[in-house]
Amino acid sequence: MPNHDPTNDLKAEPRRAAEDIGREARRAADDAADAAETAKARGSELLGSALEKGAEFVDSARKRGGEYYEGARSKGSEYAEHARDEARRIYREGERRAGDAAAYAEDYYDDLTVMVRRNPGQALGIAVGVGFLLGLIVARR
């Protein structure tokens, strides 16, 4: 039987332990690298998904804003048209009333002219009386 030296076994044991530790460390490093790659890929997927969702949100907001703008613009045009119609109606009513007032004034002027021509003395007396009263009122102030 060959001589078995226990010191050789003691020397070999740390070496084997170091090799085992080295293999485990390499395996752990490989696992960590794989996990990092997986996380990086997942992060890229999440970023892409977030960018896609953000773009969808922006498009939706833009579309909704456009709808609100068009609705407000339509309502504004509707109210403006209603205001124009109302202004035209009021203007026509004012013209009609002014025409009526002018017609009444012409009628009264014609009646007054006829009355003055028929009774010039009476008209002159009334005019003098009214002038005298207005003179008193103006003089008191």
Written account of the structure:
With 141 residues, the protein is mainly alpha-helical. 95% of the residues lie in helices and 0% in strands. It has 2 helices and no strands. It has helices at residues 6-118, 120-140. α1 packs across α2. The longest helix has 113 residues, at 6-118. The N and C termini lie far apart (155 Å).
Which class of secondary structure composition applies to the elements?
A: mainly alpha
Helix content: over 70%
The CA-CA distance between the termini, in Å, is: 155 Å
Number of H- or I-type helical stretches: 2
> Tell me, what's the shape?
rod-shaped
Assembly category: single chain
The biggest sheet amounts to: none
**Count of strand segments:** 0
Mean pLDDT: 84
Strand content: under 5%
Radius of gyration over all CA atoms, rounded: 55 Å
Low-confidence stretches: none
In N-to-C order, the SSE pattern is HH
